């Protein structure tokens, strides 16, 4: 068993055969809260989907418009977060080049949150995952993304894994119009549904370990990818994927185990495999959600 040092004095085991909800404490160090997969069945579900709505501004970027600058402002959850983006629509595809600063570790919102995701929200509330926002040094991050939408709002949320299909309510930044924004700007309210924060069940008491060690950036990235995949698998299981999408769930679990078995020389492959596991697990969750809904609300056929 290897152990790694948190930024606080508590040291906890890193890896276990049991499911984990990790706490990534910052670049170079990582710690984890352990959780048994079958422990305490009387607890609430790992991912309790309660719909919450939020309203922000969507901007119409037009068609074949010139590049347009927008800003990002932090929400009350992360008031010092800020950023900017260059947005341009060309031939029906809108590109976004965004830069952010003041983004603290997503784990400040709970141990289940491992990453940030940039979203495009259409005026009718449809959300589109534009990709994971990777943080560099000094709480900064940047990304390039594209969307087939023309009018949308941009938000950043903290998430349990990069492949989520609906934003959590941990919204840390939203787009705002700059004084020098050019092109056709049409502001409309975009109300969207959110998944609530703090909906995972996890053990608050961390087991103490006698020793710890710092991790390299490469190992940090690998562990983060594996933990995100673990979160995705747990979410899928809690949403009935074992019953309604067992083949996809099994595939996700196989990929996760494969990533966990890879050696240090295979870290890039391990990251890619873990990310695939997260995507497959999210597919399983969505399939299970649809199939379970059909069983609860079966269609009445007319003769």
Structure description:
Strands 5, 6, 7, 8, 9, 10, 11, 12, 13 and 14 form a ten-stranded antiparallel beta sheet that branches. A two-stranded antiparallel ribbon has the order 1-2. The chain contains four helices and 14 strands. The chain starts with a strand and ends in a 7-residue tail after the last helix. Helix 1 (217-238) runs antiparallel to helix 3 (246-261), helix 1 (217-238) runs parallel beside helix 4 and helix 3 (246-261) runs antiparallel to helix 4. The chain has two domains: 3-46 and 201-296, no CATH class; 52-194, Immunoglobulin-like (Sandwich), CATH 2.60.40. It is an alpha+beta fold and 303 residues long.
Domain count: the total is 2
Count of runs of 4 or more consecutive helical residues = 4
β-strand number? 14
The H-and-E topology, N to C, reads as EEEEEEEEEEEEEEHHHH
Q: How large is the share of residues in beta strands?
A: 25-35%
Q: Over the alpha carbons, how many angstroms does the gyration radius reach?
A: 20 Å
Query: What is the correct CATH architecture of the largest domain?
Result: Sandwich
CATH class of the largest domain: Mainly Beta
Amino-to-carboxy terminus distance: 64 Å
Which regions have little confidence, pLDDT < 50, spanning 5+ residues?
Answer: 1-29, 31-49, 198-212
Determine the mean pLDDT: 76
Shape: globular
Question: How would a textbook summarize the main sheet?
Answer: 10 strands, antiparallel
Annotated CATH topology of the largest domain = Immunoglobulin-like
Going by helix content, strand content and strand pairing, the class is: alpha+beta
Q: Helical residue percent?
A: 10-25%
């Amino acid at each position: 068993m290897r152990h790694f040092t948190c930024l606080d004095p508590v040291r906890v085991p890193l890896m276990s055969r049991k499911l984990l909800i990790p706490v990534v404490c910052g670049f170079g160090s990582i710690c984890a809260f352990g959780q048994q997969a079958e422990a305490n069945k009387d607890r609430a579900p790992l991912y309790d989907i309660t719909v919450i709505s939020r309203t922000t501004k969507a901007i119409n970027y037009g068609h074949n418009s010139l590049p347009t600058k927008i800003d990002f402002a932090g929400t009350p959850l992360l008031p010092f977060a800020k950023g900017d983006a260059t947005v341009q629509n060309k031939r029906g595809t809108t590109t976004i080049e965004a830069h952010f600063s003041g983004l603290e570790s997503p784990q400040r919102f709970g141990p289940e949150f491992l990453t940030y995701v940039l979203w495009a929200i259409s005026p009718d509330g449809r959300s589109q995952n534009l990709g994971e926002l990777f943080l560099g040094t000094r709480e900064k991050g940047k990304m390039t993304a594209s969307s087939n939408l023309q009018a949308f709002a941009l938000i950043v949320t903290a998430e349990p894994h990069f492949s989520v299909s609906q934003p959590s309510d941990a919204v840390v930044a939203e787009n705002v119009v700059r004084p020098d924004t050019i092109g056709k700007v049409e502001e409309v309210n975009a109300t969207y549904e959110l998944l609530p924060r703090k909906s995972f069940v996890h053990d608050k008491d961390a087991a103490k370990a006698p020793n710890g060690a710092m991790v390299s950036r490469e190992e940090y990235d690998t562990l983060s990818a594996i933990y995100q995949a673990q979160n995705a698998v747990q979410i899928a299981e809690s949403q009935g994927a074992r019953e309604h999408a067992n083949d996809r769930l099994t595939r996700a679990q196989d990929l996760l185990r494969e990533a966990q078995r890879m050696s240090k020389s295979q870290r890039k492959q391990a990251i890619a495999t873990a990310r695939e596991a997260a995507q497959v697990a999210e597919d399983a969750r969505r399939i299970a959600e649809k199939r379970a809904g059909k069983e609860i609300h079966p269609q009445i056929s007319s003769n």
